[in-house]
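dumping these here so i dont lose them again. two proteins, back to back, each one seq then structure tokens. dont judge the mess
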Amino acid sequence: MSKEQSIYEQDIQVNPAQLAYWMMPAKNKYAIYSRGTGKSFIVGAEIDENVRIMPRGVTTLTQATYGQALTKTLPSSFKMLEMLGYKKYDSTTKQGDYVVCRKPPEGWYLPYEHLLSYEHCITFSNGHCLYILSQDGNSRGPNADYNITDEALTIDKEQFDQEVAPTNRGNEPIFGKFSKNPVYKHHGNTFLSSMPYENSQKWLLEPAKYYEEERGVHLFDVWNKVVRLQMQLIDAKAAGDRSLFREIWNEVCRLRKTITPFVSKDGTLFILASIFDNLANVGLSYVMNQYGVMDKLTFMIEILNYIVDKIDNCYYNLDERHKYYNATNDSYIQDFAENTDFNWAQLEDAHSLMDADCNPNKPLEIVFDWGSSGSFMEVAQESNYDWNARQDISQKYPGRVVDNTINEFFVHNDESDTMVNALVDKFIHYYRFHVNKMVDFYRDRYGDHRSASSKRTYNEIAIRRLESSGWTVRQFTHRGMEPPQHDKYLLWGFILSEKDERYPIKRFNASKCKHILISMNSTRVKDSQGKFVKDKRSERNASIAPEDATHFGDAVDKRIWTKYGDLLKENAFYVPIRV
């Protein structure tokens, strides 16, 4: 083969967010990017660079769970690597560049670090090893040269500091400061995440303080101002007001220049990006479509990367004990991965058997909130297992249950059968392998109203769709058109305090139900004639800030009130103290 034939070339277009990240070498990098900005490119590019500049080195890929790595991070990352020419090793042809979770072929270089097992390794032909760490299992890996943490908002930072960080210390004479050709990023970290929305995740934003300390830039204030302007930009586009669109666009560009990313004096890069950084690839029409599909709060956080703080005077007194992140069925996922020879496309098409907190032999509980702007769905299931404490409660609390919110779905509502069916179809597809095809359907009473374009109500359409797909539907209805706000507030006080054993223990799968938690943490409570009620102005006024959005919380309320509201009668004399 001639020299020219041995050269591999591939044109890859990068967006400004990806280019900005890649053109600023840093030892420690924090990329807080919204959906649609190309985070998978960054993980793939980091792996590729480490393979090339640290042959026979070790990069750890740290995730909350092993299943999360196999189903979320690795499939999209290796799509990018395959664009660069990487091929999985074929034992028949003896050709390929990497092997997954098995010992490398005879004749390949091995890592400098002696590995006792390759069960959690992706090894490349030049000896570089991508070692998968999971905080629910093998979180103590070999001595490493670099660490990548994707979905960083789901990890336990304290556990990371105790178990992963100390292992980032390998091969100092080879790649480090004692080497003849030291690698600048050696012993560094890359943290990638969508926008944190809980206080326990805010450590991801702390590194950004160097913007103000070194250049006097108030990064977060300016960024949120940009996001609000981008919302106005979308409204101007929808209204066809070209002059206003141009004026806002120019102001957004001006503000973005004032927060141009840079590397700190100690080698840290903190960078924010949103869908507007990827307009050349996705187009403004995609942004407009997502704006129509999503509720306002979800759109601002997921697409525009809006920075959210938990509000004061919150209607729900949620804290860390009510949430859990790690409930992937890793043993099933690993078996599935091995049986498909680590087929990334099949691993990416997630379903409920990959969720350890979903019992396939028990019915599921579902509830909808049918709204004028969007429709929202909660999926729940009772169990005797507390996924936060990681313990069975049946011995300690006989007869008490754990009420687990395990999933969420939402769609834009266009007042037609199509969107109702689209929402139900998301549920049907995800739970396609669920054995016990029975649902407890908690009716949204507003869903009993007929839309102008249909002879059937939303509830009737949804039930018919479920039944036509083989699901048995048991229906439950709460009293009144809408659960009373003050009584719901008291009910949530009893449940979340966890002091009265007649009430369930409430848990939320925080990695699956992100928007439910954002909605609940962002719902204000106000006093109305001596009673506590939700501040629901955001549902009536598009100009109200998204922190007030309440739709997903309303869906959860309906099911909880229908199941447990009668218990309040026994406690009518007592107002619970907020814990």
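---- next one ----
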Amino acid sequence: MVIKWLDTQGPAPPVDQPKLRAAEYVRMSTEHQKYSTDNQASAIQKYAEQRGYEIVRTYADEGKSGLDIGGRLGLQKLLADVEAGDADFEALLVYDVSRWGRFQDPDEAASYELRCRRAGVQVHYCAEQFENDGSIGSSIIKTVKRAMAGEYSRELSVKVFAGQANLIRLGYRQGGPAGFGLRRMLVDQEGREKGLLDQGEHKSITTDRVILVPGPTDEVEIVREVYRLFVEGGRSEREIAGGLNERGVTTDRGRPWTRGSVHQLLINEKYIGNNVWARTSCKLKGSHVRNDPEEWIRADGAFAGIVDAGLFEAAQTIIRQRSARLSDEEMLQALSQILARNGCLSGLIIDETDDCPSSSSFRTRFGSLLRAYTLVGFTPDHDYRYLETNRKLRAMYPGIMEMVVAGIQRVGGSVVRDSVTDLLTVNREFTASLVIVRCFRTSAGSLRWKLRLDTRLKPNITIAIRMDSGNEEALDYYLLPLLDMRDAVFRLAEFNGLSFDAYRFESLDTFYQMAARAQFRKAA
């Protein structure tokens, strides 16, 4: 088979021929300047002029990764408009095949083009050397290019990981807080110190690096005291935490000490100067996985340690001996008791429990925490760092539900509440469900909300109550109609664009107005 490569300019349309309406989709991550949205738009505009298209709408995702569709509101809006019949255009112009995304599954990008075509919108690639005409040749080329786009991301991930690993081996810190008793020092490419970084500050010059240095003298002495109390004084982590709290000493995050925070201080090798990285990893937008110790990247003696190596090893011996004296059955029994008391398990919960092996001991004995969880019949499906917040929000739910029901009745509407599902049937006309959306803060300090719609009950309207940064009060409300919601899970930022924030309201008055009943005079 011979593939005929076409001139992407194509024949110029007749002067008097009316222009065809088209939309453009542009996306940029952080890959290269040639993929900037301005450069893409310029190439697309040139293509449109040569082919007789008039660009009437732009969908853009700037600074968005192409590894998945999450957070790409431009593409989500494009697909929603096309499939809902709201597209006022008959063609979609895209810079090249990779702008759909660099998915690890090449069929994912193909599916988005297929959804457009099925809705009657033809897709054109403006910078590709083939005509997207459905021929065998173009189909083969697109498949290859989609696979190449995914491979590009995979190779880039490997190179980035290798680069970060090399910096670790050279003794440089790769993200994360310094920890109590330590500080992050900014150094230039020659290793000269430039100054300490405060919490939340990051380096801004590419050639600069970060190392760990001893913190204030009083903090360093407290770290050493903790090790002495644990090793020489025979004090437990909880006893040490209690003593620090009585003296008014807080952690590096300004929080009271707990058994778990003292335990983490006792097991972290950075206190003897070792630089250890890649204990966990999350590659190509996949799930977080805990790596085996032999896969960790490390540089021993990279920093100036503030704890004697012999004292540190003695602490590790004590921690290991806690579980060495126990059989597998005894350790699992202890884990089962923790599960029975708390209803769930996590590394933090285990480390906060007295007279129990540490979470690291369970990992060592059973290969991973997940393996140990499985053996006691527990399947984790939540982020338990926010367990207390979730409990608080669940406690709020009945009161908020009663408020909504009262609001409907106040305007004259009728409402029936299902005692099992809490689904509301309003005026026997439509159904509604109530969702409280917890706020969390990313590592960069941005606020985010993760909203899950009920795909089982499929209410006509979902009332999503977005909580404020402290999860104390409602920040705003989203009234989400089932007909407009294409996804079951949404990740919300502080501002989400008109395509989603059009459903946002400061109060529930609009919802109550939907339930209000109007009185009409009977005709004679």
